[in-house]
Amino acid sequence: xxxxxLALVADIHGNALALQAALADIGRQHPDxxxxxxxxxLNGPRPAEVVDAVIAAPLVAIxxxxxxxxxxxxxxxxxxxxxxxxxQKTITLNDAIRKMSLMPAQRLEKATPDAKRVGRLQxxxxxxxxxxxxxxxxxxxxxxxxxxxxxGHGEDRQHH
Length: 160
Description:
Blueprint lengths: L5 E5 L5 H14 L3 E6 L8 H8 L21 H12 L5 H16 L52
Parallel strand pairs: 1-2
């Protein structure tokens, strides 16, 4: 029986230098699998650099804990659409939608059967589609006070 060698990455908290060091060590160790346990971004000094480093990886899902007391707890999806799809073209629109809807739903399927009805475009699915204009997507969610919707979801809203 062979031994599965895992590399676990956790609690990076927006520290791009720590992520670089962890990825360099992983590169030297050649594990069979890399598992990211969470807390890559929130409450860190350089969260954008951390996201830049991992967002295009095929197994990276995009989700937010929705911590309203922190600036990075709001506007996650609008930020992804504006920065990584439209501006930098790091990921495609289809990949962004899959990372923000299907992948998180698939992760929850083991915990609740209802997760099989969300994150998908199919007959009987519970989700609706919001189609922002390409140029309107923006991260302008507010942390304190009136936490209105992020940009690009006003007049362009279409449900299918």
